[in-house]
Fold this sequence. Notes:
The chain is mainly α. It has a domain at 60-111 and 129-164. It contains three helices and no strands. It has helices at 2-7, 13-18, 42-171. The chain crosses the membrane at residues 66-87. InterPro entries: Cholesterol_transport. One of its GO terms (biological process) is intracellular sterol transport.
Amino acid sequence: MEESMLSQPIEDPGKLSGLRRRRRTFNRTADTVPKLSPQRSSGDGDLDDKGDTAGKKKETESYHTALIVVMSIFLLFLVLLNVTLFMKLSRIEYAAQAVYRLHLQEEKSLNLASDMVSRAENNQKHNDQAHRLKGVLRDSIVMLEELKSSLIMLQRTFDLLNKNKTGMAVES
């Protein structure tokens, strides 16, 4: 009974379910785990293992070197493509600027031509207006002269009437 009591945990059974044991994982490397290979004499095994690892190192180094060379060539190719695209883009931009400048010059020339045309039209309009004003002034002068002559006639008529009235008044 004592033994069973001592082997029982002191903590509550409910707490045990909440706690979990942590498992330790450890990496096994080639040094800790021996490889299974056919039995050889101790002298041959050491040389083969060293030669085998040296061969693997050379193989991986050559693989890495080839991979680096291929990636370098690919990057060089991408750089050349970028330079080509940059050159094409700069040519397109230059052409667009040239077209824009040409368009501005055409607009300026059209504006100048339209200004010249509008000035000529304005001069023509001014000449037409001046001609009309001259005609209106001539007509006004003619009407004023007619008015003057009719006023003079009216004045003569009044003078005759006044003479006639005064003459009649004197005779009476």
